[in-house]
């Protein structure tokens, strides 16, 4: 009986690892095909393209006006990051340092945009923004992206703030430190790794956020991911290599910021902290 259970366990482990490996290999193959095609002069029915070229990147940059798209993308993204950072860190500090009736309910309400599909609240929110005259505008795109970004900053920052001993802040106040000095000289150096991690991850999320941005963006406020969608599905004939070149630009941009964010935060840190809290 014990041998049968051990054999079954090994079969399950093998099956899980086989499926995971197959998934990763399939994903890498798709990414590799996009990258190779973006450099191909012609690629039909062969293992490798007939030739190699970089002209599709120059063509995509001009055809899809990527200079203005990238500029507006980062204007929107950095505005979302700054506003989410200021509001999110302040909110996270209040939630981490104060105990009050209904605190768990308040935290749950803050996290709802992360727990439910974006389109669930995105469509009615976009309707309200259009009624307010913000549809297709810069600030309309910023506001709709702040909705999931602010709770994300709160979620990331609460564990970092809770790791700081409140007695450090109390001692600083005893020696006459005001709120500004307390934040700049005591809290900011301690919270800086967490803030960088949260804001970089918000940056990555905002760059990759398609649904909410698509609902509210106009012709002059499309981010890179929305422009990529229109490049694929809009009417007209476009070279597949140019679209793949645009996709590679999007992948590289997102991957750069994601790798940078992972230098400051361990993805398991938040989960481990949540488990620790649930056991108390």
From TrEMBL:
Listed InterPro entries: MetI-like, MetI-like_sf
Bilayer topology term: Multi-pass membrane protein
Location of the protein in the cell: Cell inner membrane; Cell membrane
Keyword terms: Cell inner membrane, Cell membrane, Membrane, Transmembrane, Transmembrane helix, Transport
Pfam families listed in its UniProt record: BPD_transp_1
SUPFAM superfamilies: MetI-like
GO biological process, one term: transmembrane transport
Domain ABC transmembrane type-1 residues, every copy: 70-261
Family listed: Belongs to the binding-protein-dependent transport system permease family.
The name this protein goes by in its record: ABC transporter membrane spanning protein
